[in-house]
Amino acid sequence: MCRLMGVVTRAPLPLTEALSDLAAPFTELSREHRDGWGIAAWPGQGTGLHIVKDTEPAFDTRRWDHTLMGTLTDTALLHLRLASPDLPVVSGNTHPFTVGTLAFAHNGFFTPYDALDELIDADLLAGAAGNTDSERYFLRVLTLLREENPVDALAHAAAEIRARTSFASLNCLLLTEQALYAYSDEDPDSEVSRRRGPDFFQLRYRVDEDRVVVASSGVPQPDGDWHVLPYRRVLEIHRSSLRVSVHRVAHALVKQI
């Protein structure tokens, strides 16, 4: 179980400024979620996706602070990892996972981790960097993106996981060149959800005049300022306009499996 945060700003800013008062409490979460971290960010129009990952706890490495201070961006995805049992803390298992102009991070787990392998295009599966369920989730989304838009692909992949696995949460963030997407989903009867409580896997988002933030629980999210992203919905935040949409995707989208 991990922690997620995404931010989109009207103009490029250092991440410390874009996150403002959320940077310190999010970093503090790495005292528990200490199995590595990653940041994917768009430095600006016309430049490539910037990726920094580390297997050290964020609170205990200067590289995390330097990355927050030194990354000038209008759109970023941040991930703090708490590794599932038996999954090693190595770079290949560290989020975000990236291919080309896309980055993906997941909060939760499902088992068996290879339940989607037959649904993933062979070229994508052959390029897997690690052995996590989360990367398989991303690879299935990538497969679907060859025919579907990001909103449908996220909801479609999640529905397939629900049908094939036992899972705790399918919360995720997907970063593209055009937008940041968030998907929210959990099994409230999972052992983790019962132990952690009903709010642990909730994703919330905040819309300000010049910034939109989406985050896992654990950072300050006072009522009135933050909105809960309902389960099985996709939040879409456009980079160019900061336009925010919450999509409800029909279950009929999912093919027979």
Automatic annotation (TrEMBL):
PROSITE patterns: GATASE_TYPE_2 (PS51278). GO terms for molecular function: transferase activity. Residues 2-257 form the Glutamine amidotransferase type-2 domain. It comes from the Bacteria. The keyword Phosphoprotein does not apply. CDD domains: YafJ. InterPro entries: EgtC-like, GATase_2_dom, Ntn_hydrolases_N. Keywords: Glutamine amidotransferase, Transferase. The keyword Transferase applies. This is Class II glutamine amidotransferase. It comes from Streptomyces chartreusis.
